[in-house]
Amino acid sequence: MLAVFAIAEALPVGGVSIIEMATHGPLMHCLADRSHLDPHLRSVVGG
């Protein structure tokens, strides 16, 4: 059976979120991680 998962969050541009569809439902591993961006882009307010 295919389950539907939806989340509405205000997240920064370029942020990476990782959600695993586990046996008992969604499992969030990471929310709005921007560590992959260079320091200048990470420091941009509102970005």
Structure description:
By secondary structure, the protein is mainly beta. It is built from 1 helix and 2 strands, in the order E-E-H. Strands 1-2 form a two-stranded antiparallel sheet. Strand 1 (16-22) and strand 2 form a beta hairpin. The model has no long low-confidence stretch (mean pLDDT 81).
Sum up the structure in keywords:
two-stranded antiparallel ribbon; 47 residues; single chain; mainly beta
Would you tell me the structural class of the helices and strands?
A: mainly beta
Record the strand order, biggest sheet: 1-2
Order of helices and strands: EEH
Number of strands: 2
Topology diagram in text:
Elements: E1 16-22, E2 25-33, H1 39-42
Antiparallel strand pairs: 1-2
Describe this structure in a few short sentences.
The chain is mainly beta and 47 residues long. It is built from 1 helix and 2 strands.
